[in-house]
Structures
1.
Amino acid sequence: MQQMPMNATTAAHPNVGMMPAMPSGMAAVPNGSMPMNMMPPAAPGGLPVTTFIQAPGREESYVENILRMNLGKVATLYMTYENNSEWNAKIFKGVLEAAGRDHIIISDPATGMRYLLLTLNLDYITFDEPLIYNLPFGTASNPITRR
């Protein structure tokens, strides 16, 4: 491993730029994936190759996944748009057709108009019916109870 040149920052904080301790041949990964052993370089002077696999049984609940489980339902999306002098906030209502990491597609059944909305502007979503909320990997559903 190459050593960093000593300067005021590295002298005060000797672990700056260092990765957490891992077993030999392993690399730390900030996104929570499990690293596999590093493979030897393919060619002399080549960089080592690391393959990552998702830890089994670890699933996170994201808006896009919840929306995908509820395609076909009518949703009301509350959106805000900064620095917009004509309309700062807007409400869209329609049938949920698709959801991705950064977008949601709904359609208005009365007009046939389809809207591609960026989740960047999404504040919240309401539904007039119960939601399906089953996480993958065999976990049970989490019914919403009202008090």
Note: The CA atoms of residues 94 and 112 lie 10 Å apart.
2.
Amino acid sequence: MEQKSSPESVPSWIPASGHALRHTGVHFDAVRMVGVLGEQVAYEIMQFTDFQAGPIVRSWVGERNVYFLLPPRSAAAYPWPAGARLMGRDARCDAFVGVPALDGRTWPLDWRSKPTREVPYVDPGLLHELTLGVLESA
């Protein structure tokens, strides 16, 4: 299911075309999950939120990372388990996440879930809870 966004609701950190690197901790924090874990957590959060999960970026190269974009300075409040890496200023390192445009050619990145005016970020508490649930059931 494709989410629609009107031009006035597009966050300033989303490029107009292609993709761009964005410094984490400025516009958003990110939690990175690799491969199957990331896809499973993305599936669970999409189902739980009736496809209104907030921004989730997927990479189609290398380890096929999935990036869950959270409000700035929110991710460090949770003890992320192995397999989920916090990427934000609170992580004590500089990190960048590739962000695709909402439409057009953005390979090797795409949106698993786009941000909307109503849901501009993934809920960090819900993401943490669902991540733990996926890992416990594995």
Note: The longest helix spans residues 35-48.
